[in-house]
Amino acid sequence: MRTAATLRISLLIASTSVFALVGGPAALALTPTPAPTPTLTEPTVPEPVATYFASGLVPRLADLYGPGKKAGSGIDFGQTAKVGDIHRVFAWTAEFLAGKSLAGKNSGNPTELTNNWVAPVAVKDREVGLATVWINPTRDNPELANFDLGPGLVTALAAAPKGDVLVRDDIHSAWFATDGTALVPLVSGTSGIATTTTIEAYRKSLPSVVPAPVTGVGANQGLLIAGIALLVVIALLAVFVLLPDRRRRARNADAALPEAVQEPVEVVPEPVAKALVIRTRSAQGVVSAPPTAAAPAAPSAAAAPPAAAARKPRAPRKPPAPKPTNPPE
Question: Are 132 and 120 in contact (CB under 8 A)?
Fold first, then answer.
């Protein structure tokens, strides 16, 4: 009995060895290899963001992009507007954009989360744009950040492989999809990537220049733009309000001048004036100051010059006495 049992065990071991030597490689080739686990996964959408996409986004879009007064203007969102799948937006880290190696001390994920979520919006089953929502840090509430009109960007992002995350490259105006290793260009922009590659290959193609920090730049630029706009408004007010007012006051001042100043003064020739003075003196027997054409008449008697004293009449000359004549002898 022991010999029979030992024989069975020996035959089983031998057959297993023969199978491993002959059919082993083929058997191992037929064994499915588990797919590699992606290093990047889509994070869960926060509840306030999901609620805004579900109930607050379409009314906001209708206020901003709805029909206007002109016929056919705007988009009629109505009851047929639908919001598609929501995706969290990733971005490259500053070290990655500087071309630094991800090995050693800099090892880690080349991407980082942003405060943006995107979703396509369709009206009557036609894509009308891509909505970007962010959480306003001052109010701590989700709000519409941007709306890219048209189906172009929606169609490009829809080509992302399932399970990949979206990476927005603002420096190169590009969009990518990645699982942490492979890199699929969705919108090439100025990145120079047109076909599927790897993240490491894209890093090596980047220039070794550290991008300028962006922390706080937006707020400073906003204040600068607001100040410039205020100066422009003040300059326009000075040109279009104050200048016409000064011209109006000048015209009113010209209209208020006395008529005597505006009317021309008749100038009497000097010989005629002297003749008038002589005739007046002869008729009145007094000497008065000759009138002048430029000076107006005195307003009162007190201001008039005193009349000259009358001349005494000259005594008539006596006729000369006749000379005596000698009588004739």
Answer: no
Which residues contact residue 48 at a Cβ distance below 8 angstroms, ignoring those fewer than 6 apart? 135, 141, 142
86 shares a domain with 1: no
27: its two tokens: 């058997």
Residue 107 — very low, low, confident or very high, per pLDDT cuts 50/70/90? Answer: low
Q: Domain containing 15: what range? A: 1-33
Question: How far is the CA of 102 from the CAs of 4, 106, 116, 201, in angstroms?
Answer: 63, 5, 25, 12
82 phi and psi, to 5 degrees?
-135, 145
> Is residue 68 pLDDT above 90, yes or no?
no
Residue 197 parent element (H or E): strand 197-198
Which residues, 6 or more positions from 60, have their beta carbon under 8 angstroms from its beta carbon? 144
What pLDDT digit, counting tens, does each position of 218-277 carry? 445 556 677 787 787 787 777 666 666 666 666 666 555 555 444 555 555 566 556 665
Across the range 11-17, mean pLDDT stands at 50
SS3 313: coil
User: DSSP strand E in 52-196: where?
Assistant: 81-83, 87-92, 111-123, 126-136, 141-149, 165-169, 174-178, 182-187
Tell me, yes or no, whether 60 and 114 share the same domain.
yes
Please indicate, yes or no, whether residues 28 and 76 belong to a single structural domain of this protein.
Answer: no
In a domain, 304, yes or no: no
Do residues 117 and 53 make contact, with C-beta atoms less than 8 angstroms apart?
yes
Mean pLDDT of 161-188: 95
Asked if residue 158 and residue 75 are part of one domain, the reply reads: yes
Phi, psi of 159, rounded to the nearest 5 degrees: -80, 0
Contact 234, 227 (CB under 8 A): no
Residues 23 and 165 in one domain: no
Does the pTM exceed 0.85?
no
Query: Which two tokens mark 187?
Result: 């919108």
Return the SS3 of 298.
coil
pLDDT at 316: 59
Residues 204, 63 share a domain: yes
Is pLDDT at 292 greater than 70 in this prediction?
no
